Amino acid sequence: MSMLRCYQVAEFGKPLALAEKPLPEPTGRQVLVKVERCGVCHSDLHIWDGYFDLGGGRKVVAANNGALLPLTPGHEIVGTVVAAGPEAHTAKPGQRRLVFPWIGCGTCPPCRDGNEHICAGAQQAIGIFTDGGYASHVLVPDEKYLLDMGSLDPALAATYACSGLTAYSALKKLGRLPPDHDLLIVGAGGVGLNAVALAKVMTGVAPIVADLDPAKRTAAMQLGAKAAIDPREADAGKTLFKTTGGVMAAVDFAGSDASFAFAYAALRKGGHLVTVGLLGGQATISIGLHVMKGLRISGSYVGSLIELQELLQLARQTALPALPITTAPLDQATASLEKLKAGQVIGRIVLEA
Ligand SMILES: [Zn+2]
Ligand SMILES: [Zn+2]
């Protein structure tokens, strides 16, 4: 009998543990998916470390305070349907699908609005609260979370489930910008680079990218950035403001004190900052200046099922530049997390099961 192999966080901060269990039998509308690709995301690091930093010394302990351990991480999953429950109608064995992982309780107000990704009840996100894709198989609770990815490259499509979706949802909040306005993207990790790839087609503007790492700035230029700057250079913020007259829109994909301050200070009057990164920063702003400049700050956390459908449609219709992807075998999961933690990853590592 075939078994489910998975790499799990058994103890926070320790190497992932290989486990084997019997293959689950899908019931109801559940679908069993054989994992082909699974992206390694920054959120996996938070789960591995055991906490999400809220800034000011406040932390959220991952995996429901550790109660969910051992937990298999991995939420950027492409795989093939192997079995579906008796009440599933569209999922058929052999279909290659992208998994929408941001599953909520289904009954709270945000879930009822179709925003399961910001569920206010008992969240069920795959790889965060339930076993994910660092595995040979994953059990998806409903066939509606499986998306047809057409002929897209499976490793790239996998990254759309989180880093692509997060970038898409953030840029969608900005809308289309007039062509003579500037867009600033702070942070060119996996999510930031996916945003660089999407920025021109979604906002109409090629972005200016700020990142500390010269290799990430180079990657951003290759994906179509208009300019790439080092925010730590003396007067980088002043120079940016002077040359652009202030940017109309900015997205902070880092979320540190410094990245937020840099992005916020770059806004012109009427500007809009979308904050995405979860590095645990805090900010103090002058309410008076915020009012008089007519500024706007929006938070954006991953994205909805409908937004992932929109992103896939966009990717299937448009030749989007692809972010750099390194593949690694599934048994390199721990080493891949270590590389990501050390800041050595340009774009994404995608595990191959
Ligand atoms: Zn909910
Ligand atoms: Zn993620």
Explained architecture:
With 353 residues, this protein is an alpha/beta fold. It folds into two domains: 3-153 and 322-352, Medium-chain alcohol dehydrogenases, catalytic domain (Quinone Oxidoreductase, Chain A, domain 1, Alpha-Beta Complex), CATH 3.90.180.10; 164-299, Rossmann fold (3-Layer(aba) Sandwich). The protein contains eleven helices and 17 strands. Strands 3, 6, 7, 8, 9, 16 and 17 form a seven-stranded mixed beta sheet that branches. Helix 4 crosses helix 5 (190-203) and helix 4 (154-174) packs across helix 10 (305-317). The model has no long low-confidence stretch (mean pLDDT 95). The structure holds zinc ion (ZN) (2 copies).
How far apart the termini lie comes to 18 Å
The CATH superfamily of the largest domain is: Medium-chain alcohol dehydrogenases, catalytic domain
**Total number of β-strand segments?**
17
Looking at CATH, which topology of the largest domain would you report? Quinone Oxidoreductase, Chain A, domain 1
At CATH level 2, the architecture of the largest domain is: Alpha-Beta Complex
**Major sheet description:** 7 strands, mixed
Strand content: 25-35%
Structural class, by secondary structure, is alpha/beta
Indicate the radius of gyration in whole angstroms. 20 Å
Helix content: 25-40%
Bound ligands, each once: zinc ion
